[in-house]
Amino acid sequence: MNVAGPIRTRPLPLSADGKDVGSGSSSSNDVDMYLDVPSFELSLDEFEEYALARLKVLRKIEEMKTRNLPPETFRAQLDASIKANLTSPPQKHQQKNKLDVASHFILRAAYCRTEDLRRWFLAQECRLFRHRLESLSSGGSNNNTLLRDFLTKNDFDLDPVSRDEKEALRDKLLKVPGGPMNPIEFHNTQYYRVPFVQALELVSKRECYVEKGQAYVPLARIVSIVAAKFRVALSKSLALAAGVFGQVAHDEASRIGPLLKSMNSQYTGPGAPNAVTGMDGESVLTANTVDTLADQSMPLCMQQLHQGLKRDHKLKHQGRLQFGLFLKGAGMSLEEHTLFFQREFTRIMTSEQFNKQYSYSIRHMHGKEGKRASYTPYNCMKIIFGNPPQSGVEHHGCPYKHYDEQNLSALLTKLKIGSVADRDAILAHKKDGNFQLACAKHFEVSHPAATMVDGVNLDGVGNHPNAWFSASVSYHNAKNGGGAGGATNMEVVKQEGAVAM
Fold this sequence. Notes:
With about 500 residues, this protein is an all-alpha fold. The chain is built from 24 helices and four strands. The protein has a four-stranded antiparallel beta sheet with strand order 1-2-4-3, with no helix packed on it. Helix 1 packs across helix 3 (about 95-110) and helix 4 (about 115-135) packs antiparallel against helix 10 (about 225-250). The model is unreliable at about 1-15, about 20-30, about 270-275 and about 485-500 (pLDDT under 50).
């Protein structure tokens, strides 16, 4: 998009009280309660750029939670993602604040539409907020000063405990696990008195002292109380925005409405859409190589679509969309996409029937027909929460979500995925409703020691089928001597495809 002129629209009531006070606030160290709706001027390019930058961070948070990373690794990788996507150079600090605040409110508008979207956005934003607040509260007296400044600036009415009262409670406060370790540290620690109902998380973990309905909380542990208030305020704001989204989207139908409605389905994976190329710059996924790559490197959902197409020589509408957009996102060109589908479909129909009934939809996927939009591949959440397939007729969906335990077990055994213990672990994730963890486990057992292979990007594995495919191709390239970006293994694949023809 290249739209001259800024966006100046009637804002959604995205603050908890529905007020728009102008420029918004930016707190110390980029920790913000986002209570004030900003009125920045943005071009449509900036509007989309800012939103996708933050979406990458939120999806990274979801992906890391799915992988159950250790806390230290989680913090390090999240810091790196924030730095890469939500941070501007020091000389552009004002621009950085604008990016952070504007991107939050854009996504808040985009994700207020349904209960599932609101729940997802709330969970990821709360994790991001808590991470930033914990960073602010750790690291010594200087950071404690920054945290006090943040609390003061955002009108947190906390009752500080006097030095005399703190000394009177010394023995009891020192017994709290994880508190000050020695008298000097205790002397320098500021405590606050809050109603215990506002510190239930700390009470449940025995991380504060409670007396007469009051919780005595050290400054460093105020984080959980502030995070709880942030969650309540954001949840209320999302509900308010949902009530007026339809009207605002209608008023802005020609500008930001379509962007907001499609934001949750935007692909933010590596190298979209041509994620997998060889050293010659050519796509490795062609009509000749797709069969070999399906067995070697496609996630289970796409393998099932591929097998369904090879067996039935056709796919229903939802299957064509899910598989076709995946192929496009993996780098298959319009010409190769059409050729591959035509080869299969014309086993049960004439070329004329295929051209009349199906070739238009393929061109439409690639942005060559209709409104010429560039459609993005489905991520795992869209597949999981999409319409379930009709058994025996349709092949789309997520096998970990839509197959029963018996059929999934039989499929994993048939495909010889891992050991019996590995398959049991995958089935346990499925039984617990952790479908993305099951998919990530499948990748882990099919690609031993992938974390140790140089150049294999595991970001998004278990979160997006195209990330799964890209990581798998890089893994096999490296294992076969071509390096993660090399073409040795892909040349073999291309040759096998040529022989198969």
